[in-house]
Specification:
24% strand, alpha+beta, 40% helix, single chain, Alpha-Beta Plaits, 239 residues, eight-stranded mixed beta sheet
């Protein structure tokens, strides 16, 4: 389970467009304002799973989970990525709001849950299935380094990051594996109203996130099974 801000002890996977003067400011830890889409993902019920299986199976579970998450994060062009415990975080960053960031993040979240579905099918039947929870939010943040010189970490910080983390936890409450903020949904709907993926988030709910006073509007995604049913109904209607 991941808590608080993500830690990023790696080099960014793409150039850093939010820092027009290059990396010099980041090396000294000076924060750079930016816009970001933040995705948190972790294994639902990992503590209980760890009690029920051997340590070697725990390692195999985490190894497989992080391998699948890393493939999807890298494949969808995240600017920053981190993997801690049973969780992963990815951030797409630009100087200002960009439709491509929203589309890449949504695609990554959907690909993550598809990858876990396939991975669970391929695992030995004796091993318990690993459920995933994914939460996403978009908004202003800052990018900077923290830690000692030579051992510093590059990461994204701010309320946008905290909210994305809390939204991921709401997957348990809402009974789904993927939840995005209504803010993110509306940004995508405004700039790309024809994007078919908008139909995967048909309902909006108001919820209070742990530790926050004001409620937030969320969009739970249809489950993989619900999507399959919709496709079948559509195919029948077209015949």
């Amino acid at each position: 389970m991941m808590h608080g801000q993500p830690r990023s002890g790696h080099q960014p996977s793409s150039p850093m467009p939010w820092a027009p003067s290059g990396r010099s400011n980041l090396i000294y830890g000076w924060p750079q304002p930016a816009f970001g889409v933040v995705l948190f993902a972790d294994i639902v019920g990992f503590t209980t799973l760890s009690e029920e299986i051997d340590p070697i199976e725990v390692f195999a579970l985490l190894s497989g989970f992080h391998r699948e998450m890393a493939r999807q994060i890298a494949g969808h062009g995240a600017t920053l990525a981190d993997h801690v415990g049973d969780g992963a975080v990815a951030t797409w960053i630009a100087p200002g709001p960009e439709i491509s960031l929203l589309q890449c993040a949504i695609s990554c979240g959907l690909a993550m849950r598809d990858a876990m579905e396939s991975w669970n099918r391929d695992r030995p039947a004796a091993l318990p299935a690993a459920r995933i929870g994914i939460g996403m939010h978009a908004g202003p943040l800052v990018v900077g380094t923290i830690g000692l010189p030579g051992r510093s970490k590059l990461g994204a910080f701010g309320d946008t990051v905290n909210v994305a983390n809390r939204i991921e936890r709401m997957t348990r409450t809402l009974g789904t594996d993927l939840v995005v903020s209504d803010d993110l949904f509306r940004m995508l709907a405004t700039d790309a109203p024809a994007d078919e993926r908008l139909g995967l988030f048909p309902h909006v709910v108001s919820a209070r996130l742990p530790g926050r006073g004001r409620p937030i509007r969320l969009r739970p995604a249809l489950s993989i099974r619900e999507v399959g049913k919709c496709i079948k109904v559509s195919n029948r209607a077209g015949t």
